[in-house]
Amino acid sequence: MGTKTVDETGAGSGTETKTDEEKVDVVKATDTIDSTDADEATETDEIEEEVAAEATEAAPSGVGQGAGAVVSAALGLVSLSGGWLGTVAAARQSLVAQLESSTSSSQNVSKLLEQGYGDAWNATALWAGAFALAALIVGVVVLARPAFGAPGRPQAAWIKSVAWGGVSLGVIGLLLAVLKYTDVLVGLPSVS
To answer: Is residue 170 a contact partner of residue 79, using CB atoms and an 8 Å limit?
Structure first.
């Protein structure tokens, strides 16, 4: 590759231009620019990927809202069925009434009926009302969450449906608990 050029006088005066070296310098400079551009492009791609990953991680997935909606519906169902705590509270009240009636046999029948069954019924109603209120609160929080969280991101339809179901069950459970506690719904029989 040793290309030598003679200047235009044609006499071979000894002035030679080293174009190979110049070409090498130009190729090196071009390679440096190309590698710098490639490095910058790689860095830009990496930054864009990081930003996209952060945006994906930062965006709410709705899992918490979905779980809250299911919890609301479950609490609403428990409020309608009475639940284990309501049954335990009713059994405890019955036991307390039996213990009190065994120590005092001079009580009248209506008083025994009220202590044995009425207090247990009221305890069940109180626990059912607590579960219904919890279902109502959780359901309302799930429904109101998008307004305070990520307003641009819509809430999934199934989350809304289940949360509305939980709110409805909570309202019905609360209404039934109040009716049970006030003896409007299936009150104690009168003993007269």
So the answer is: yes
Report yes or no: 128 and 173 within 8 Å, Cβ to Cβ: yes
**DSSP states of the chain as a string?**
----EE-TT-S--S-EE-HHHHHHHHHHHHHHHHHHHHHHHHHHHHHHHHHHHHHHHHS--SHHHHHHHHHHHHHHHHHHH-HHHHHHHHHHHHHHHHHHHHH-TT--HHHHHIIIIIHHHHHHHHHHHHHHHHHHHHHHHHHHHHHHS-TTSPPPHHHHHHHHHHHHHHHHHHHHHHHHHTTSSSPPPP--
Pairing state between β 16-17 and 5-6: antiparallel
7 phi/psi in degrees, rounded to 5: -70, 170
In angstroms, the first-to-last Cα distance of the chain is: 127
Taking only the tens place, the pLDDT of each residue in 103-149 is 665 567 667 777 777 777 888 888 889 999 999 999 999 888 877 76
Please count the CA atoms within 13 angstroms of the CA of 136 that sit on its side-chain side: 15
Render pLDDT for 142-162 as a digit per residue (tens, 0 to 9).
888 877 766 667 778 888 899
Confidence (pTM): 0.58
